[in-house]
Amino acid sequence: MNDFLGRWALKKASEFERVVIVASGKGGVGKSFVSSCLALTMADRGLSVGLLDLDLHGPSTTSFLGVGRVRASKEGLIPARRGEVEYMSLALLTEGTPLPFKGEDKWPLIYTMMAMTKWSANNLVVDMPPGTGDEFLWALRSFNRRKSKVLVVTTPSKASIEVVRRAINMIRDERFSLLGVVENMSYLSCGGEKVKPFGEVDYSNLGVRVIARIPMEPSVEEAIRSGDPPHKSSPELERAFNDLVEVIINVPGDSR
Amino acid sequence: MHEWSIAFMILDALEDLAKSEGLSNVHFVEVSYGSVMELDGSLLKEALTELSKGGSFESVEFSVVEEPTVFRCSRCGNEWEFSHELIEGDRKVLEEGVEESSVHFIPELAPALIKCPKCQSRDFQAIKGKGIRVSRLEGSR
After folding, report:
1. Per-residue confidence (pLDDT) for residue A74, from 0 to 100
2. B132 touches A: beta carbon within 8 Å
3. Cα–Cα distances in Å, from B15 out to A18, A76, A116?
4. DSSP-assigned letter for residue B90
5. Do A70 and B93 touch (CB under 8 A)?
6. What is the pLDDT of residues A135-188, one digit of tens each?
């Protein structure tokens, strides 16, 4: 009961009208890329959106959104902004130092960050670290089940899908809403043709629908280096994220 | 300045806290915080007093106490007290035109910004003065 920061964090977490938790059991599949581009595209569509980077040990959304400035006010920390996207990440609060947080310290770290941040957005995209540990558990416990959904990112690789399956099972065990699978690095566009370097993957035995196939776009790296919006690196990439936002907006039974 | 948001959170939780302690009429509240938070204690007290005006805690006397934050290194066993000079590698947060350390807002960041002064390890934990809490609550039952 003395834990008023934890209590305040829960209150804040429940205030969002829509929460999209971007997860995957696997590391290196592009969760932060998908989270960042998703938030940028939602903002382009006129939605008020925030991005919370919960990758405590290796935050990387700032690679896509830039290292903006966090400010403080009487109401708490004002997140950094990239255009109309407001975002908060430990990368905005530390200068490349190691982030060696222990299990028992992670929940207080997450809820203090949540309690202290003054969001103005109605929609929140949450970028998860790999795995199904404390950060993921906190999100599943804290965000309103009726308003929140998990989107699972994978690459078309057996090695990734076998790990992703564990995350999907956990989401189901926790009775949390699963939006679907996003297949990142799905294909390359070559002379107007789609080339699938990793081949076709059968997702039917996961029992979940694929809601987006994001192309592998080499110009993303160039956009990151030059600070250009990564979700607009190619018309195809932009279209893929627009379609994903369309799916999120039109989730059955979801009129927000 | 974010002492105001902390005061707001404390007052929001106070009613339930008093209820859980079986107190119906609270007249004294003591808030303790670790020195790693580098809070302005007098500002926090002022914010608690101001924000409680017109509410059920209007007549409460607030006391704010700073406790030294003590860390223990898991590698060499060294124990040391927090001091501002130990912070390195933080990105500053702009608060009313002044640059403040991020640990001031999120003290749990300490392992990222402080090293054991003896062996330079970041594998340590706060054994005293960790975070902020209501340390004393007095009232009638």
Report:
1. 87
2. yes
3. 30, 22, 21
4. B
5. yes
6. 999 999 999 999 999 999 999 998 999 999 999 999 999 999 999 999 999 999
Reported ipTM: 0.92
> Per-residue pLDDT for A1 more than 50?
no
- Burial B18-40, CB ≥16 within 10 A → b, else e: beeeeeeebeebebbbbbbbbbe
List the one residue out of A71, A83, A82, A176 whose CA is nearest residue A118. A71
Q: Give kind and range of the element (H or E) at residue B61.
A: strand B61-67
What are the pLDDT digits (tens) for A73-103?
988 999 999 999 999 999 999 999 999 999 9
Question: Which of B19, B101, B102, B137 is best to mutate for the A interface (most A CBs within 10 A)?
Answer: B102
pLDDT value of residue A252: 65
* Domain chopping of chain B, boundaries: 3-140
Tally the residues of chain A.
256
Looking at residue B98, its pLDDT comes to 87
pTM of the model: 0.94
Topology annotation, domain B3-140: hypothetical protein PF0899 fold (3.30.2320)
Q: What is the pLDDT of residue A254?
A: 41
Decide if B95 and A92 are in contact by the 8 Å CB cutoff: no
C-alpha B103/C-alpha A114 separation (Å) is 15
Q: At a CB cut-off of 8 Å and minimum separation 6, what does A171 contact?
A: A23, A140, A150, A152, A178
Q: How distant, in Å, are the alpha carbons of A90, A189, B98 from that of A75?
A: 19, 47, 16
Nearest residue in chain A measured CA to CA from B94: A71
Residue of B nearest to A99 (CA): B112
Distance CA A99, CA A111 (A): 17
Quick one: tokens of B26? 């609270």
Q: Any chain B CB within 8 A of the CB of A98?
A: yes
